[in-house]
Design a protein that fits this description.
The chain contains 15 helices and four strands. The chain is α/β, with parallel strands linked by helices and 332 residues long.
Length: 332
């Protein structure tokens, strides 16, 4: 069976299955996603739009060979006929949103009415949404003391990265990305040693690396000023601001290398603070032991709670996803 026919049958199968069900039954809309973690995220997105007429089933693109990833979703279901109203794809934007159709995959992601993307680089960027990180610390340590300003730190971090990020997008758009890859960008954007009480040196470290690399790129591309300024203006129009650059860099790098280590150090202080309170407030040794055991049994893993973080739902980028889903359903 040819691939075009297979894809068309996939889409038509779900439409036909819905047509055969009782008129009182809810329509099922299948949403294919990239990975297991994406299932939970897109369930959070799509669940709001379920009602007595429709529901969504979020799944990986294949139950047969367990293939995962964005290319698997797009290649399996976008080659040939489009997905269809009862079968959609939900993927990370990666750089495809910012590339604005410079590549075939970018065009596929942006132009299909049945493909939805995150706008930010990936779901991990949403999970690391700075205004919500204090809540993650509270869920981990059960201590609501605000001892670190995540919002300000990541605004400063983003402002330092923004000029180099413009270079990155420009070079990916014009095909010169081997000269400055995402991996290269990640090495520069790593804050390195982080001190919660003195975070400024980590920002200064990134600033120094950014300046060095920009000087290098300016030497390599001496005539790029006009293209650079045009790319910068375009990114601003797409919603990327100097204060929110962190939302558009590689998600796994942000999650594992930048945010998780910072959260770990903040949570360690909060945890120690709570333990000290128990130690000094306990009336006797037995109470101290019982309270400490109760508290320690209530502590949560940082990365687990970060993955469950849904504070990003207040972000403008998340609302754009909701608007896209709403527009799709209005034409359903």
């Amino acid at each position: 069976m040819g691939k075009r026919l297979r894809d068309n049958l996939n889409s038509n199968y779900f439409e036909a299955a819905n047509a055969l069900t009782s008129k009182k039954a809810r329509h099922r809309i299948v949403a294919y996603v990239e990975s297991y973690d994406d299932i939970y995220f897109w369930r959070t997105v799509l669940g709001e739009f379920e009602n007595d007429k429709r529901y969504f089933e979020v799944m990986l693109p294949s139950k047969v060979n367990l293939t995962r990833g964005k290319k698997s979703v797009l290649m399996n279901f976008l080659e040939g006929e489009p997905l269809g109203k009862d079968m959609i794809a939900c993927v990370d934007a990666d750089y495809d949103y910012l590339l604005q159709r410079r590549t075939r995959q970018s065009a596929m992601v942006l132009d299909s009415p049945y493909v939805f993307h995150t706008y930010v680089y990936a779901i991990e960027n949403f999970q690391c949404y700075a205004p919500s990180l204090h809540n993650v610390c509270v869920s981990v340590t059960l201590n609501d003391h605000r001892i670190f300003d995540f919002r300000t730190y990541f605004q400063l971090y983003s402002e330092v990265l923004f000029p180099l990020f413009v270079w990155s997008i420009m070079l990916y758009r014009n095909g010169n990305y081997p000269r400055f890859s995402i991996s290269d960008f990640n090495r520069i954007s790593d804050p390195g040693g982080f001190n919660m009480h003195h975070p400024e040196p980590s920002i200064s470290n990134v600033r120094r690396k950014v300046r060095t690399k920009i000087n290098d790129l300016q030497r390599q591309f001496p005539d790029a000023k006009e293209e650079y300024l045009a790319t910068k203006a375009d990114l601003l129009a797409l919603g990327v601001t100097p204060q929110t650059t962190y939302l558009y860099i590689q998600g796994h790098h942000l999650f594992d290398t930048v945010v998780s280590p910072i959260l770990s150090k903040v949570c360690n202080v909060l945890r120690q603070e709570r333990q000290n309170e128990i130690y000094h407030a306990a009336a006797h040794k037995t109470q101290k032991h019982n309270e400490m055991t109760c508290y320690e049994n209530s502590l949560q893993d940082i990365k687990v709670m970060l993955k469950k973080n849904s504070g990003y739902m207040a972000s403008e980028q998340f609302r754009r996803i909701q608007d896209d889903i709403r527009q799709y359903l209005d034409s359903y």
